[in-house]
């Protein structure tokens, strides 16, 4: 369980977080929404220990981030997969190198391990065929072709999937998505939503999604929190989000039209 308690953070005279209280339920998909500049990304950086709060606590599995040693914080970060906005792939590296770079940087040199893990995560995000249906020979051919590609050879949707695959390396308990559908067309956005749902169910992983995409929120969220003026102004499920009487929330989602992105 991730728990944020009375979290405050200021940058000079700008008070970004002004007493955030929020629980991230285990095994569920939580979407964080809110206007640009409301503190969503700052919130994520506190959870992974990249920023230190002025006041309050961030608890992961009942342990305060602030009380952790560097080694303990390192272990916590290893248990969190992070999908950056735009995927943030290294242009000079191949797909294979982008996926296993975390293992390699931490001293893993066993090629059998690196190959096995890359196959696992690329399959998990739907970039490789099901080996039980396609057969080993075809699977290995597809793996070889995909692994050697550079990011410039990939579509926007494929780049996002490779970014998610990299985040899944090491089987983390938590995965954070920063605007996962930004810049994608409706078809690819729907596919990314489906992938997030499938990974959550298949891997029993706790997902935290920062998004402005209300289609994604209503498609995938078990739990929704909205930030406004540095505080949580709404917390509940997607049904309650649609029917809230809070004017700040209704104004934010007023441009959303229920139905498919394809309409």
Task: Explain how this protein is built.
This protein is α/β, with parallel strands linked by helices and 263 residues long. It has a single domain, classed as Rossmann fold. Helix content is 41%, strand content 23%. The chain is built from 11 helices and 10 strands. A 6-stranded mixed sheet has the order 6-7-8-3-9-10. It has a 4-stranded antiparallel sheet with strand order 2-1-4-5, covered by helices on one side. Helix 8 links the parallel strand 7 (174-178) and strand 8 (206-210). Helix 3 packs parallel to helix 7 (156-168), helix 4 (111-124) crosses helix 7 (156-168) and helix 7 (156-168) runs parallel beside helix 8 (186-203). The longest helix is centred in the C-terminal third of the chain and has 18 residues, at 186-203. The chain is globular. The model has no long low-confidence stretch (mean pLDDT 90).
Helix and strand topology:
Layout: E1 2-11, E2 14-24, E3 29-33, H1 40-47, E4 55-60, E5 63-64, H2 70-78, E6 80-83, H3 95-105, H4 111-124, H5 131-134, H6 136-147, H7 156-168, E7 174-178, H8 186-203, E8 206-210, H9 214-220, E9 223-228, E10 231-236, H10 238-242, H11 247-252
Parallel strand pairs: 3-8, 3-9, 6-7, 7-8
Antiparallel strand pairs: 1-2, 1-4, 4-5, 9-10
Helix pairs in contact: 3-4, 3-7, 4-7, 7-8
Compact description:
The chain is α/β, with parallel strands linked by helices and 263 residues long. The chain has helices at residues 40-47, 70-78, 95-105, 111-124, 131-134, 136-147, 156-168, 186-203, 214-220, 238-242, 247-252, and strands at 2-11, 14-24, 29-33, 55-60, 63-64, 80-83, 174-178, 206-210, 223-228, 231-236. The chain is built from eleven helices and ten strands.
């Amino acid at each position: 369980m991730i728990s944020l308690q009375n979290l405050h953070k200021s940058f000079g005279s700008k008070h970004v977080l002004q007493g955030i209280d929020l629980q991230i339920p285990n095994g569920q998909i939580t979407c964080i929404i809110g206007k640009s500049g409301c503190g969503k990304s700052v919130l994520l950086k506190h959870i992974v220990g990249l920023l230190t709060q002025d006041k309050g606590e961030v608890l992961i599995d009942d342990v305060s981030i602030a009380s952790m040693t560097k080694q303990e914080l390192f272990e916590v970060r290893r248990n969190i997969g992070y999908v950056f906005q735009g995927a943030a792939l290294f242009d000079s590296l191949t797909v294979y190198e982008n996926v296993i770079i975390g293992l390699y940087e931490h001293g893993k040199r066993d090629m059998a391990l690196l190959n096995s893990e890359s196959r696992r995560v690329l399959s998990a995000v739907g970039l490789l065929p099901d080996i039980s249906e396609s057969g080993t020979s075809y699977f290995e051919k597809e793996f070889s072709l995909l692994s050697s590609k550079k990011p410039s050879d990939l579509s926007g949707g494929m780049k996002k999937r490779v970014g998610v695959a990299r985040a899944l390396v090491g089987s983390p308990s938590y995965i954070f998505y920063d605007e996962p559908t930004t810049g994608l067309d409706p078809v690819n956005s729907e596919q990314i939503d489906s992938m997030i749902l499938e990974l959550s169910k298949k891997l029993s992983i706790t997902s935290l999604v920062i998004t402005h995409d209300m289609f994604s929120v209503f498609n995938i969220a078990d739990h929704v929190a909205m930030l406004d003026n540095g505080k949580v102004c709404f917390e509940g499920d997607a049904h309650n989000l649609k029917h809230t009487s809070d004017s700040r929330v209704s104004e934010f989602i007023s441009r959303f039209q229920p139905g498919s992105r394809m309409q």
